[in-house]
Amino acid sequence: MAGSASAAVPGAKGFASARQIFATGEDGELAYRLQGEEWVDTKEGNQFRSTTVRKDVKVARREQMTEEELLIFHRQQYVLHCHAMQCAHLSTCARVCWKECVRVDDFLTVATHSTLD
To answer: For residue 24, what is the enclosing H or E element?
Structure first.
């Protein structure tokens, strides 16, 4: 019994070998479990990002539509304003023309009456 420690204990070599096999199996199981957790984390992260992007796209579309509607509204208001200004200008021109016509008519009436007398 003065030899090595493994010779002193019967089956020590088999025990070390079995322990190594179990350790390797545990390492493989641990690696498999960690890989599964990593896969789940990655999947959940991707789902979260996809959901967030979809929501952001919806919000961006809504805001863009609102801005476009405001732009259309302002353009319509501008067109109406220009039309109103044009009508006001035409109205002013019509009044001036009407006054000129009345003045000419009055002149013709006076001239006609004076020649008849």
So the answer is: helix 12-116
Q: How many beta carbons lie within 10 A of that of residue 40, not counting itself?
A: 10
pTM: 0.39
Output the CA angle 51-57-62, nearest 5 degrees: 130
- SS3 for 10? coil
106 HSE (CA, 13 A, CB side): 6
In order along its 117 residues, the chain shows pLDDT tens digits of 444 444 455 556 766 776 777 667 677 788 888 899 999 999 999 999 999 988 988 898 899 889 888 888 888 888 888 777 777 777 777 777 777 777 766 666 666 666 555
